[in-house]
Design goal:
The structure is a homodimer. The first copy, chain A, is of the alpha/beta class. The first copy, chain A, folds into three domains: 157 residues, NAD(P)-binding Rossmann-like Domain (Rossmann fold, 3-Layer(aba) Sandwich); 163 residues, Dihydrodipicolinate Reductase, domain 2 (2-Layer Sandwich); 88 residues, ACT domain (Alpha-Beta Plaits, 2-Layer Sandwich), CATH 3.30.70.260. The first copy, chain A, has 16 helices and 16 strands. In chain A, the strands form two sheets. In chain A, strands 7, 8, 9, 10, 11, 12, 13, 14, 15 and 16 form a ten-stranded mixed sheet that branches. In chain A, helix 5 links the parallel strand 4 and strand 5. Chains A and B meet through helix 2, helix 7, strand 11, helix 13 and helix 14 of A and helix 2, helix 7, strand 11, helix 13 and helix 14 of B. Strand 11 of chain A pairs antiparallel with strand 11 of chain B.
Chain lengths: 437, 437
């Protein structure tokens, strides 16, 4: 451009993994950013409590401060990037930024899944915007994909692998045959799982992302804690073995179905048919399959986490905010807005599907009859039943029994599981996984 | 919204398959469109030479005219949707629309790949926009994906299945074992191939789409006719057989590699490893794998053609144009603009890769020595060689010989093929396919 470019100043709060990626792109790729946006995008300030650690971005050290207020109080900064994570300080920071009439870019799914309405209302009240492409599925453009590119569709369903840690653990268990605990330790050693991986492996992280996608796609305002969720911590190597025998892989799926009876949402380890796109997602990758009434089946796949993949999405949001595209998107999507029609949620007990049940049962006669009787009384029909005798000498008197049900509903399965759990011949709680056909 | 919505009037030229889909979405889903855009989007006029055929959209018949001038001359229509196809009348129409200061939405890859610069310059001169999501990969949001969502990346490579007809024919040959000619007839019967499928099966359609992606991703201004291309009409059932034995599937791939020595572009039937995302694309689906320097590998998959999938993309463009997002995108992308840096093209002869060669050779001694000698003199190293004797009694005195090369370059392979073709012991021209590893 021969005309002088407008300058847009950006402040970044949180100089961790993703923050480092964002700083690298904004500071080291200035020419590309100027060419792509037509504006002179300046990373003016970075705030982090740790102002000494070397993140490998020399230019960043000169603009580093330990006080986010240096960003909030700088009238020249018009975009604040929140990358601190969590829902406490991050919330305060975003509120401060919006009240100072700054636009916000965030990668914080927990924050939006918990305080989306509050923060979006505050943004609207201040004439500001919030962009959050990186909050769901990292580098995969699923927010823009659903919110913009598929806008001519009524979204019918979503099947998504949204937690890279869980997917890494599941696909590693599948490849190595190792059990859950050992695989988590290996994932921690390789940096794919945090010291406390609870939010990742118990399905909470995936539920938060699914809640955001459900709001974007269906208008549903849902507390992510209300989404029925099962974590991968119930999955053992024996499940991997049986799933493989039956022609499936196990993936932690977030599922949304927009049915005439309401919106069904769930997060669960799920048996996915071998050879399908979702079953082929290995390691720390994420994927989202969306079905729209016009477009049909669309599948997105890419890195769901990591420094530069996530920074790719954050910086796209920064550019969109700088050039005004976000302002239009924010207004037309009207997320968590009062006038947005919301899909009603279906009672989770009514959700239909097929299930995989694994229980440790006494290696004795009559066991199968008792379990079959319970299932029959709950009107659950058995599609397959596998029981392996223990010829391996390792038995503690129990053997795994695997049941694949025909189509039933979640309430009936939960009811049957409670009854099965109470049987003397069953050790511990049965494990329930979903089946995607 | 309680405030009165702005009205945006749309004129549609071309009431064929995609036009019918667009009319259905705009006329039958008015409430959804208003909710998604915040404007009252009115399909005011449809022009088509055939004003009598029933397309199953009753509301459309009242606004149907046989003269596109009724749209061009209507000052209230601000968006013209060009769905007539081809590069002759379509060009005149788009020029008329731009000169009448109307924004254009088109699904016409041939038009943009041929006259992109001319039309985009005209749009800029008139202060108008052109949107074309549907021109590449139908319902897959690849234009927005690369142009917006991956804007923080230097794009490194693209691998794309861009022609649904070719993919349908290849995957059907693979499943049925039928030969090329019979499969084309079947595809025509099912509506997946046109009466004259030449532009689809000879790689031209894929080359046009690849030229557009190459401009979007790398700034390269390339005449699509300059892209080296091989069509699927060279692929025979014997190739399907050998590819399968070797662990590959054959797909018509558009490839772009942004290397230090320049941009490599090609369209060719390619051996793709079984089990990869690209090899799993069957039937009339399309897919695009993009590698960005920040985001890494991102994969998009969906329907590349058809009434409603393509209309999904066209209507998203109409909405984006109506709400002003296209104006920003059009300005910042500055496609076919003078100040956009263009990647230089690499000499196709220098492009490196591995190749699959199939030749019909005399079932006689000394043949292999002659061919091996030619390859050695072109510095082409053989990775695998398969030759099957003809025990089937059907021989015409020749048997297929398959050679998989190690890494070499296109020029050397083409040179060797010319020499092999001249051998008396070789019948016809050798078939050359690429190998993607």
């Amino acid at each position: 451009m021969t005309t002088k470019q407008e300058t847009v100043k950006v402040g970044l709060v949180g100089f961790g993994t993703i923050g480092t990626g964002v700083a690298k792109l904004l500071l080291n790729e200035k020419k590309l950013m100027a060419q792509r946006s037509g504006v002179d995008l300046v990373l003016a300030r970075i705030a982090d409590l740790d102002t000494t650690r070397d993140r490998g971005v020399p230019k960043a050290m000169k603009i580093l401060t330990n006080s986010a207020d240096d960003i909030i109080n700088d009238p020249e900064i018009s975009i604040v990037v929140e990358l601190v994570g969590g829902t406490t300080y991050a919330k305060t920071l975003v509120e401060k930024a919006l009240n100072a009439h700054k636009n916000v870019v965030t990668a914080n799914k927990a924050l939006l899944a918990t305080y989306g309405k509050e923060l979006f209302d505050l943004a609207r009240a201040n004439g500001c915007t919030i962009a959050f492409e990186a909050a769901v599925a990292g580098g995969i453009p699923i927010i823009a994909g659903i919110g913009q590119s598929l806008q001519a569709n009524n979204i019918q369903s979503i099947r998504a692998i949204l937690n890279g840690t869980s997917n890494f653990i599941l696909s590693t268990m599948e490849e190595t045959g190792a059990d859950y605990d050992a695989t988590v330790k290996e994932a921690q050693r390789l940096g794919y799982a945090e010291a406390n991986p609870a939010l990742d492996v118990n399905g909470s992280d995936a539920a938060q992302k699914l809640a955001i996608l459900a709001h974007l796609s269906f208008g549903a305002i849902v507390n992510w804690k209300d989404i029925p969720r099962v974590g991968i911590d119930v999955v053992q190597s024996v499940d991997m073995y049986f799933a493989k025998q039956l022609g499936y892989k196990i993936r932690l799926l977030g599922v949304a179905n927009n049915t005439k009876s309401g919106l069904e949402l769930s997060v669960s380890p799920t048996l996915v048919k071998q050879g399908t796109n979702l079953s082929n997602v290995s390691g720390a990758f994420n994927a989202v399959r969306v079905v729209g009434d016009a477009v049909g089946n669309v599948f997105f796949y890419g890195k769901g986490a990591g420094e530069l993949p996530t920074a790719s999405a954050v910086v796209a949001d920064i550019l969109d905010t700088a050039i005004g595209r976000t302002a239009i998107t924010f207004k037309t999507l009207n997320l968590w807005g009062d006038e947005r029609p919301a899909a009603p949620l279906r009672n989770p007990d009514d959700v239909e599907g097929r299930y995989y049940l694994r229980m440790d049962v006494a290696d004795a006669t009559g066991v199968m009859a008792q379990i079959a009787d319970i299932l029959a009384k709950s009107s659950i029909s058995i599609a397959s039943l596998l029981q392996y005798g223990n010829g391996n000498g390792k038995s503690n008197g129990t053997v795994p029994m695997i049941i694949l049900t025909h189509g039933t509903n979640e309430g009936a399965v939960n009811q049957a599981i409670e009854k099965i759990k109470a049987l003397k011949c069953v050790k511990g709680a049965p494990v329930k996984l979903r089946i995607l056909d």
